[in-house]
Amino acid sequence: MLVVFLLVVFILAKFAWKPIIKGLKDRENEIQGALDLAEKTRAEMAQLKSDNEKLIAEANAVRDQILRDAKDASDRTIAESKDKAAVEAQKMIDSARDAIRNEQALAVSKIRKEVAVLSLEIAEKVLHRELKDKEAQEKLIEELASTARLN
């Protein structure tokens, strides 16, 4: 029996052992290749995820910068518009003040002229009434002569 066993082992070793070992080695290589491929794919996926997160972060940063720039531009435009409106309002106020001063000066001038004309008319009427008779004229001349100063 030992001889049969040794003979079977020898035949197996000579003819079957190498193909079995070769088949196992091939299977081991296939499994290792699949594991290596899976590890490589996992690493690539991790890298892609990292790259994707970086791209999202960059896009968010660009979006935030665009929003800040738009807000700054809006604030500048509003400030410029307010400043421009304030300047225009001040110009209008100054123009209105000048117009009021001019109208006031014109009105004062007209009133002075009217007062002067009325004063002359009143003086003329008073003098005319006072100087109707000869006696009143002489009396006025004497009063004026006595109050007049000679230089």
From TrEMBL:
<dbReference type="InterPro" id="IPR028987">
    <property type="entry name" value="ATP_synth_B-like_membr_sf"/>
</dbReference>
<dbReference type="InterPro" id="IPR005864">
    <property type="entry name" value="ATP_synth_F0_bsu_bac"/>
</dbReference>
<dbReference type="Pfam" id="PF00430">
    <property type="entry name" value="ATP-synt_B"/>
</dbReference>
<keyword id="KW-0375">Hydrogen ion transport</keyword>
<feature type="coiled-coil region">
    <location>
        <begin position="24"/>
        <end position="106"/>
    </location>
</feature>
<comment type="subunit">
    <text>F-type ATPases have 2 components, F(1) - the catalytic core - and F(0) - the membrane proton channel. F(1) has five subunits: alpha(3), beta(3), gamma(1), delta(1), epsilon(1). F(0) has three main subunits: a(1), b(2) and c(10-14). The alpha and beta chains form an alternating ring which encloses part of the gamma chain. F(1) is attached to F(0) by a central stalk formed by the gamma and epsilon chains, while a peripheral stalk is formed by the delta and b chains.</text>
</comment>
<dbReference type="InterPro" id="IPR002146">
    <property type="entry name" value="ATP_synth_b/b'su_bac/chlpt"/>
</dbReference>
<keyword id="KW-0175">Coiled coil</keyword>
<dbReference type="GO" id="GO:0045259">
    <property type="term" value="C:proton-transporting ATP synthase complex"/>
</dbReference>
<keyword id="KW-0066">ATP synthesis</keyword>
<comment type="subunit">
    <text>F-type ATPases have 2 components, F(1) - the catalytic core - and F(0) - the membrane proton channel. F(1) has five subunits: alpha(3), beta(3), gamma(1), delta(1), epsilon(1). F(0) has four main subunits: a(1), b(2) and c(10-14). The alpha and beta chains form an alternating ring which encloses part of the gamma chain. F(1) is attached to F(0) by a central stalk formed by the gamma and epsilon chains, while a peripheral stalk is formed by the delta and b chains.</text>
</comment>
<dbReference type="InterPro" id="IPR050059">
    <property type="entry name" value="ATP_synthase_B_chain"/>
</dbReference>
<keyword id="KW-0812">Transmembrane</keyword>
<comment type="similarity">
    <text>Belongs to the ATPase B chain family.</text>
</comment>
<protein>
    <recommendedName>
        <fullName>ATP synthase subunit b</fullName>
    </recommendedName>
</protein>
<dbReference type="GO" id="GO:0046933">
    <property type="term" value="F:proton-transporting ATP synthase activity, rotational mechanism"/>
</dbReference>
<dbReference type="GO" id="GO:0005886">
    <property type="term" value="C:plasma membrane"/>
</dbReference>
<comment type="function">
    <text>F(1)F(0) ATP synthase produces ATP from ADP in the presence of a proton or sodium gradient. F-type ATPases consist of two structural domains, F(1) containing the extramembraneous catalytic core and F(0) containing the membrane proton channel, linked together by a central stalk and a peripheral stalk. During catalysis, ATP synthesis in the catalytic domain of F(1) is coupled via a rotary mechanism of the central stalk subunits to proton translocation.</text>
</comment>
<keyword id="KW-0472">Membrane</keyword>
<keyword id="KW-0406">Ion transport</keyword>
<keyword id="KW-1003">Cell membrane</keyword>
<keyword id="KW-1133">Transmembrane helix</keyword>
<dbReference type="GO" id="GO:0046961">
    <property type="term" value="F:proton-transporting ATPase activity, rotational mechanism"/>
</dbReference>
<dbReference type="GO" id="GO:0012505">
    <property type="term" value="C:endomembrane system"/>
</dbReference>
<keyword id="KW-0138">CF(0)</keyword>
<comment type="function">
    <text>Component of the F(0) channel, it forms part of the peripheral stalk, linking F(1) to F(0). The b'-subunit is a diverged and duplicated form of b found in plants and photosynthetic bacteria.</text>
</comment>
<keyword id="KW-0813">Transport</keyword>
